[in-house]
Amino acid sequence: MVAMSLDIEGFGDGEPIPERFAFCGLNGMGGNRNPAMVWNDVPPDTRSFVVLCIDSDAPTDATNVNKPGVTVPIDLPRAEFTHWVMIDIAAQTRRISEAAASDGVTVRGKKPGAGPIGISGHNDYTSWFAGDPEMEGVYGDYDGPCPPKNDERVHNYNFTIHALDIETLGLTGEFGLAEARAAMDGHLLATASVVGTYSLNPEI
Predict the structure, then answer these.
(1) CA atoms in the 13 A half-sphere facing the CB of 28
(2) I want to staple 55 with a disulfide (CB 3.0 to 4.6 A). Which of 34, 61, 81, 100 is the partner?
(3) Per-residue pLDDT tens over the stretch 125-135
(4) pLDDT band at 36 (very low <50, low <70, confident <90, very high)
C-alpha cells in the first residue's frame, strides 16, 4: 500500500489538541473548529477520499460520566466515538481548511449531506444527545472532542484520510461510520493518520 502522508495544522501526531478544535473546553464550550488537514503522496489511481475522526477511548459505561465525587476508571473498557465522517471528497483535493466543516458549536447539530468538501454523515453526538431537550438533534459533519471531565484516561482522536479507487460510496440519507466502512470495503488504496490527545480532567 502507498505511504500517503497527512499533516494537521495546529498539532502533531501524539500532541494535545488545542481547545479551538474541541466541542468542550475547560470552562465551557470550545471553538469546535475542524483543524486544517493537508495530505500528499496520493496513489495515482485515487478517485475519491474519505475523512474520519474517531475517539478510541469513549467509556462503554456512562454511569459515572461527569458525576461529582467519582471518576471514570482508566481501566474501564472503551469503544469508538465518531466525531467526523466525510465521504466522496474529490480526487484532486489535497487540503481541508480550518473551520471549513465546523466553526463553533451548533446546538441540535449541523445537517448532514452534500457540501463544498464532500458528503457528511452523522457523528455520535446524535446518539449522545438523544433525549436531551436542549441539545437533541442530528449532528453532521465535524464536532470536536468533549471527553468526560472526570475521566482518568487521556483520550486519543484519530484523524484519518483514506484514498479510494471509486468516485462515490453511493451513500445518501443519514449514514454514519458503520455504513461508510462497509461501503469502503475493498476500495482502499492508501491511508494516513494523525492522532491528537485531549482531556478535560485537571488531575491528569
Answers:
(1) 3
(2) 81
(3) 999 999 999 99
(4) very high
Q: Taking the alpha carbons of 26, 85, 116, 90 in that order, is the dihedral positive or negative?
A: positive
Give pLDDT, residue 173.
86
How does pLDDT run across 99-122, given as a tens digit for each residue? Answer: 999 999 999 999 999 999 999 999
Domain boundaries, the chain: 5-98+109-193
Name the 3-class secondary structure at 127. helix
Beta partners for 158? Answer: 54, 195
d(CA 167, CA 22): 31
**How far is the C-alpha of 170 from the C-alpha of 150, rounded, in Å?**
40
Show the cell assigned to 62: 456512562
- Distance linking the first and last C-alpha atoms of the chain: 38
Cα–Cα distance for residue pair 16/12, rounded to 1 Å: 8
Would you say the pTM of this structure is higher than 0.90? yes
Asked if 101 contacts 86 with a C-beta cutoff of 8 angstroms, the reply is yes
Task: Let me know the angle formed at the C-alpha of 164 by 45 and 173, rounded to the nearest 5 degrees.
Answer: 140
Q: Is 164 helix (H, G, I), strand (E, B) or coil?
A: strand
The DSSP 8-state label assigned to residue 19 in this structure reads G
| CB count in 10 Å sphere of residue 190 | 20
Which cell numbers hold the place of 16? 494535545
* Helical (H) or strand (E) element with 178: helix 177-184
Grid cell digits, residue 173? 440519507
